[in-house]
Amino acid sequence: MTKILLIEDDQKAARLLKRGLQEEDFAVDAVHSAEEGEPAALTGDYDLIVLDWMLPAKDGITLCGELRARGLTTPILMLTARDGLGDRIAGLDTGADDYLTKPFAFDELLARIRALLRRSTLTQPPQLKVADLTLEPQSHVVKRAGQVLDLTPKEYAILELLMRQAGHVVSRQQLAERIWTADLIALDNLMDAHMRNLRRKVDPAGLPRLIHTVRGQGFRLAETADDDA
Known about the structure:
Blueprint: E1 3-7, H1 11-23, E2 27-31, H2 34-42, E3 48-52, H3 60-69, E4 76-80, H4 85-94, E5 98-101, H5 106-122, E6 128-130, E7 133-136, E8 141-144, E9 147-148, H6 153-164, E10 169-171, H7 172-180, H8 187-202, E11 211-214, E12 218-221
Parallel strand pairs: 1-2, 1-3, 3-4, 4-5
Antiparallel strand pairs: 6-7, 7-8, 8-9, 10-12, 11-12
């Protein structure tokens, strides 16, 4: 499920936008300030960020620039009532991928979101690679040491998320929100079962282990164990 981070200080507007996007089958997290939005965005757990310009304390254009300076490549759609040419140029030059002025039609917002997601998909690397493990997002072919792995849809989704965050810890909460969404009954046991099966396929005997458990935090896909349990 496509996951969107909405950063909007107007809580009523945020509720309406969140509800509308959820009805279109997007998973949406809403926060109401740059202070909340920055750490959420930097998790890399979102496919798209919808960012309001007029935030309290630190405005959206400042936050956008700081996120880009820290290497975040997630598409950003800027929302603002400022519709002057100079404002639009400033927003785009700071790192926003698109710019939508208020008030706007919800259908136009959806169209712009879909366009940004398509563009993001087209610019994704054709293959993800960690050591001798490869994953091709378009074909869903996964190989370890040249051998094709037979993964279930859940195992593939878990592995893709771990590979996109290679070298970083992916928490259980992140996995739950991205992979299981509403299917939360007995989630810890379910997650552990899928991780055991995935490890058995990705890390067979005789090959270096790539999937590591980080005690009290989550999981990391990397060539070295570092802080692992």
